[in-house]
Design goal:
With 253 residues, the protein is an alpha/beta fold. It has one domain: 4-Layer Sandwich (Purple Acid Phosphatase, chain A, domain 2), CATH 3.60.21.10. 34% of the residues lie in helices and 22% in strands. It contains eight helices and twelve strands. The strands form two sheets. The protein has a seven-stranded mixed β-sheet with strand order 4-3-2-1-10-11-12, covered by helices on one side. A five-stranded mixed β-sheet has the order 5-6-7-9-8, with helices on one face. It is globular. It is an enzyme of class 3 (hydrolase). Keywords: Cell inner membrane, Cell membrane, Hydrolase, Lipid A biosynthesis, Lipid biosynthesis, Lipid metabolism, Manganese, Membrane, Metal-binding. It catalyses: UDP-2-N,3-O-bis[(3R)-3-hydroxytetradecanoyl]-alpha-D-glucosamine + H2O = 2-N,3-O-bis[(3R)-3-hydroxytetradecanoyl]-alpha-D-glucosaminyl 1-phosphate + UMP + 2 H(+).
């Protein structure tokens, strides 16, 4: 089983270089893998399946083409695209995943998740997260006109940026206690997540054992993680890209 993981692309019309790089990855890299995991915040905002941005049509086409080639595409919600629903998933031939997924590999069982649920020291954010993940809140929000939803989403993003700028790195990073507790509860020694935009390989996450791999956000660089029988490798490439991805190995396990 060959798996590819990415997160935190934050696709937006203001960053056509990221859109293009994602399409190139879907066309050149992803077909080599059995499964592609999209671990949240793939989109800068998703206000409902009826508001799917038209400027992302090249991405939609590339996803459908990849699925037709036989790669299974799995989508996990992030804090920016938690309203990506079944209608969009069906259209793009993507399988929606729960918030936390336990998988098996040659390296043993492991978890994949977006990662924001591990930032338990940020109590204000966790309260907000609980609110917007509530099905009743989502139903009420999706009942609003599209233009109103887009305006609300824009205001929420601006508020989030302002509040994050005033918080310490410790608060906005994952909690070591939450990580250890999750590993113990799920009986795994490996977690893969995104969200924090701090790509790294962390050791001893549960006593004297346990690894945690953090995927990078796509900004000045793009990031992806490969997993196969040979091990686990974290790569980065400079944005914008040329005709082909020129990747550099950053971490391996």
């Amino acid at each position: 089983m060959r798996r590819l993981f990415i997160a935190d692309l934050h696709l937006h019309h203001k960053r056509p270089d990221i859109i293009r790089a994602f399409v190139i990855l879907l066309e050149q890299k992803a077909p080599q893998f059995d499964e592609l995991y999209l671990l949240g915040d793939i989109f800068e905002a998703w206000v409902g399946d009826d508001g799917a941005p038209e400027y992302l049509e090249p991405v939609y086409h590339a996803l459908r083409k990849l699925a037709a080639l036989g790669t299974r595409i799995l989508f996990q919600h992030g804090n920016r695209d938690f309203l990506f629903g079944q209608a969009a998933a069906t259209r793009l031939e993507v399988t929606l995943l729960p918030e936390v997924v336990r998988l098996e590999s040659e390296q043993g069982p492991f978890l994949v998740l977006h990662g924001d649920q591990l930032c338990t020291d940020d109590r204000d954010y966790q309260q907000f997260r609980t609110m917007v993940r509530d099905p009743k809140w989502q139903q009420a929000f999706l009942a609003k006109p599209l233009a109103e939803r887009e305006a609300i989403a824009q205001q929420l993003r601006e508020t989030s940026r302002s509040e994050t700028a005033n918080k310490t790195e410790t608060i906005t990073d994952v909690s070591s206690i939450a990580v250890s507790a999750l590993m113990q509860h799920e009986q795994v020694d490996l977690i893969i997540h995104g969200h924090t935009h701090r790509p790294a390989l962390h050791h001893r996450q549960n006593g004297d054992r346990g690894e945690r791999i953090v995927l990078g956000d796509w900004d000045r660089e793009g990031w992806y993680l490969e997993m196969d029988t040979q091990g686990i490798r974290l790569y980065a490439f400079i944005l914008p890209v040329g005709e082909k991805l020129q990747s550099e190995l950053r971490q391996q396990l």
